[in-house]
TrEMBL record:
Residues 1-262 form the Peptidase M14 domain. This is AEBP1 protein. The lineage of its organism: Eukaryota, Metazoa, Chordata, Craniata, Vertebrata. It comes from Serilophus lunatus. Pfam families: CarboxypepD_reg, Peptidase_M14. SMART domains: Zn_pept. One of its GO terms (biological process) is protein processing. InterPro entries: CarboxyPept-like_regulatory (IPR008969), Peptidase_M14 (IPR000834), Peptidase_M14_domain (IPR050753). SUPFAM superfamilies: Carboxypeptidase regulatory domain-like (SSF49464), Zn-dependent exopeptidases (SSF53187). GO terms for cellular component: extracellular space.
Length: 381
């Protein structure tokens, strides 16, 4: 925070551009009670693990709604996407109950995410030096038929990995941080405490490393427009004061580069033919089975890797609009606006409902109507 303010006042063009063109939200501590407990206990003998839990005893790493498991269960029942959405999945009612086992911190973060149309997010942690991206949840393995050969012991130990539809985008975002870090990709000595799980790249899918259900990253991806990652800044949970300056230098460029990635992909506004914004319109990118929605002002942002995309905008009561959008390698989102025309389907559905949702028989010109058909037509009119 001090760096951004000072560099902005000193006229740093990069920081000025970032602060001017980006709404940056900074949360100093997601779990202040847990941090206080861990700080008092110290980092020796694993006491830092106390920081996972809130004062009420909830582990914030696994306290968000497990929407990934709900999505996969719906997929197995072939309910997606007609009866169960693959994006903006609603929070289960039992999770919203007053007596639900949900921390006040978690409820506050969920409300905060619902209020703001976030595009890119990162939760910063310590104890390792890598970037973790969704899915964090390991998909349950399908039941093995009795006649199928038994998998090897090695395969038994591996979790069932399910990649997100935005797997390539998540890898790009993770690499943008890890590659700019001064030491994150120097994994030839192994990881901080165990073997290197990142294939010498400094990035890993969460379910491959530490599988957990109900993570903030998975919830953010499946409930909002936001792409959220976990960034582990360094091996020590509680660096000594004398080490803080070097830790800042290790991560400074990475933090700036990561925030700049929010301006990669496409952006635009969805309006009707009178120029009025359309909120909650759905933006569909061909080849990526995960949609986003427009904000209250009809605006949207969609992080994408460089390439050519077939993009469509859809909204209830409007005809969809489709166009081709190009994403370049340089930072700066491509403008892709949509103008939707009113659809007659709303009026057709009303007429169908009046007819008991039965098909309306086509009247062929020149053929006389039967008395029964004439009576039905009078009733409808």
């Amino acid at each position: 925070m001090q760096f951004l303010c000072k560099e902005y006042q000193d006229g740093n063009p990069r920081v000025r551009g970032l602060v001017t063109d980006t709404r940056i939200h900074l949360v100093p501590s997601l779990n202040p009670d847990g941090y206080e407990l861990a700080r008092e206990a110290g980092s020796e003998l694993g006491n830092w693990a106390l920081g996972h839990w809130t004062e009420e005893g909830f582990d914030l790493f696994e306290n968000f709604p497990d929407l990934a498991s709900a999505l996969w269960a719906a997929e197995e029942r072939r309910l997606v996407p007609h009866q169960f959405p693959n994006h903006h999945i609603p929070i289960p009612e039992h999770y919203l109950a007053e007596d639900a086992a949900v921390a006040v911190e978690t409820r506050a973060v969920v409300a905060w995410m619902d209020k703001n149309p976030f595009v890119l997010g990162a939760n910063l942690q310590g104890g390792e030096k890598l970037v973790s991206f969704p899915f964090d949840t390991a998909r349950p393995s399908p039941p093995t038929p009795a006649a199928a050969p038994r998998p090897s012991d090695y395969e038994d130990e591996q979790p069932e990995l399910q990649e997100t539809p935005d797997h390539a985008v998540f890898r790009w975002l993770a690499i943008s941080y890890a590659s700019a870090h001064l030491t994150m990709t120097e994994t030839f000595r192994g990881g901080c405490h165990t073997q290197d799980m990142t294939d010498a790249m400094g990035i890993v899918q969460g379910a491959k490393w530490h599988p957990r259900a109900g993570s903030m990253n998975d919830f953010s991806y499946l409930h909002t427009n936001c792409l959220e990652l976990s960034i582990y800044l360094g091996c020590d949970k509680f660096p000594h004061e004398s080490e803080l300056q070097q830790e800042w230098e290790n991560n400074k460029e990475s933090l700036l580069t990561f925030m700049e990635q929010v301006h990669r992909g496409i952006k635009g506004v969805v309006t009707d033919q009178q120029g009025e914004p359309i909120a909650n319109a759905t933006i569909v990118v061909g080849g990526i089975n995960h949609n986003i929605k427009t904000a209250s002002g009809g605006d949207y942002w969609r992080i994408l890797n460089p390439g050519e995309y077939r993009v469509s905008a859809r909204a209830e009561g409007y005809n969809p609009s489709v166009k081709t959008c190009h994403v370049l390698y340089d930072i700066g989102a491509t403008q892709c606006n949509f103008v939707l025309s009113r659809s007659n389907w709303k009026r057709i559905r009303e007429i169908m409902a009046m007819n008991g949702n039965r098909p309306i028989r086509l009247v062929v010109p020149g053929r006389p109507m039967t008395p029964r058909e004439r009576l039905r037509l009078r009733q409808r009119l």
